[in-house]
Amino acid sequence: MVKTNKIDVYGRYVGDVFYSLKFSSKVKIFTSGIYLNQELVDRELARIF
Length: 49
Known about the structure:
By secondary structure, this protein is α+β, with helices and mostly antiparallel strands. 29% of the residues lie in helices and 31% in strands. The radius of gyration is 12 Å and the shape is flat.
C-alpha cells in the first residue's frame, strides 16, 4: 500500500510504502504492516536526504 504525502520539486510523488504478508485489509496494512521505507534504510539499500 502506498500513502502519498506530497509532490517534490521535480513533480514526483513522495510517499510511504507499507506491506504485509498476513493482512489484506488496507487499514490493517497501514496500522500493523511493515514500513518498507524504514526497512530499506535499515538494510542500507536507501538513504535519507
